[in-house]
Amino acid sequence: MCGIVTAIATNNVVPVLLEGLRKLEYRGYDSAGLAVLSGSLSRLRAAGRVAELAALADARQLSANIGIAHTRWATHGVPSERNAHPHISGGLAVVHNGIIENFEAIKSSLEARGYVFESETDTEAIAHLVHSKLETHPDLFEAVRLATNELVGAYAIGVLAEADPFRAIVARRGSPLLLGIGEQGMYAASDTAALLQVTRKVVYLEDGDLAELRLDGYRVVRPDGEAVEREVHLSSLSADAVELGQFRHYMQKEIFEQPQALGNTLEMIAGGGAISPQHFGARAAEIFDGVRRVLVLACGTSYHAGLVARYWLESVAKIPTTVEIASEYRYRESVPEADTLVVVISQSGETADTLAALKHAKTLGMARTLAICNVPESAIVRESALRFITRAGPEIGVASTKAFTTQLAALALLTLALAKLNGRLPEAEEQRHLTALRHLPVAVQKVLELEPEIEKWAQRFASKEHALFLGRGRHWPIAMEGALKLKEISYIHAEAYAAGELKHGPLALVDKDMPVIAVSPADELLEKLKSNLQEVRARGGELYVFADAGSEIPESEGVHILHMPEHYGMLSPVLHVIPLQLLSYHAALVKGTDVDKPRNLAKSVTVE
Ligand code: AGP
């Protein structure tokens, strides 16, 4: 959701800015722009893809040693060239990620002072505000500091000024931003992927930090102007990790990376490793001690991972568990209980609602917090007492796939760790679960081999306008995840129901044009599910059943069966989501949608 790249270097930064934007495309955007200083300020904007911006830069043979660049995901004002960043005030240019909540008030007071607004964006208010500060505080860094102190809301910004051509200023609050220390200059970007082209040495800015980037170095200050030191990290990401390689789309690549991602995430139990609270941090044993309930907070796919975990935590660890959509929890009046472990799940670690829900839980007195996250230095991780970093590697496709299955792996470990602490995991049971977890990458690999058959099913699906997903028990959230995937990337309307709910309403929708996808593991609820499937067939609905070996659901007219490997017990949801990911991927391919960047969506939802 919006991306920023800033660079000052001894060589031409235009290719670096453009390549950085390409690497941030996955975050979701609808327009792009850049501004560079080379004597005077030049700005280019395109109401479309980064490729169009690059073509404009080529045509102008743009070259400069300092610049800012941006991909915009529209919040205030339609996607258009006029609203694309950078926004300019006098000789000053600003790019911005986030939402300024008090921009109307700032705009009114600036208009009263004679500033004329050309766009509908909140960002333009920042540009004029900084410009207005320069009248009384001619130092650009100071002017940006004073301006950002007046902003309410979330921002990561980059600022350039014609009158001050040897430095770029960046600042952040709420939205991500990190610095890159390169051989040929200094850089800043919304995430590491954009900077791997020039450096792996990064500095994560904290909320409220303001930084000045110069050719010979940088400095960071707090909102009151006090200087601070921030640690320099060496990113373990390789540039290859964000390359497409042999795959057609990132989503496809990421689906097929799942065995590896699971193996990496579960590395601590490989070989002879046992289940331990230590997997969640040095203080985990102390923090888990006395936990009587679990509250999971998350959004979207991460929320579905939490829903699966509820079944595990209650059945295996016997811990009462509530799972809430973060955007609901943060605003509702709830009853806090101090002996609760608050588990926040987020691939990006940036999701504004999840971060706010976590902070809200803490203000209610719930200090035992655990983040399950794929990005080590993200805001959500830093806000939590404990952390489990899934090792899925960068997930670029907007549709979350490997992040989901690695979250499930982390949640399975959490379930077993809490069960063990509570004396509910006998040694033999622990060994059985450990064996299943260690074998999980191989089991997932086998399911991936079903792709050719799923591809055939997808051909029939692509012409449908609606689809119904059914599941029961811990596979109901998998049905929900399948429906989310399908609608997200193929734009086919899909709904998921707990199969037992069918006759309480949704059965009315079933006819020959409504495909019904059933997640049918050979578990304790299979016989119940079979009855639900009969209800569908009796109304002429066409069934697509993902059945474990041994499910004994006969294929017949209108009943298509795809046989999965043998039932995988507690971890079965990890296997059953794979064909649903593949089904939505191939349906989207047939429909010709933009698989990795579906319309209207962003990878990191850093605004409310
Ligand atoms: C999943 O395919 C979606 N892109 C979306 O639901 C996502 O899971 C949600 O926005 C939460 O993101 P997070 O895991 O980064 O917090």
UniProtKB/TrEMBL annotation:
Enzyme class, UniProt record, top EC level: transferase
Active-site annotation: C2 (nucleophile), K603 (for fru-6p isomerization activity)
Single annotated GO MF: carbohydrate derivative binding
Signal peptide (from-to): none
SIS domain ranges (all copies): 284-424, 457-598
Sorted UniProt keywords: Aminotransferase, Cytoplasm, Glutamine amidotransferase, Repeat, Transferase
Primary location class: cytoplasm
Name of a matching Pfam family: GATase_6
Limits of the Glutamine amidotransferase type-2 domain: 2-216
The EC number(s) this enzyme carries: 2.6.1.16
Subunit: Homodimer.
PANTHER family: GLUCOSAMINE--FRUCTOSE-6-PHOSPHATE AMINOTRANSFERASE, ISOMERIZING, GLUTAMINE--FRUCTOSE-6-PHOSPHATE TRANSAMINASE (ISOMERIZING)
Protein name stated in the entry: Glutamine--fructose-6-phosphate aminotransferase [isomerizing]
Organism placement in taxonomy: Bacteria, Pseudomonadati, Pseudomonadota, Betaproteobacteria, Rhodocyclales
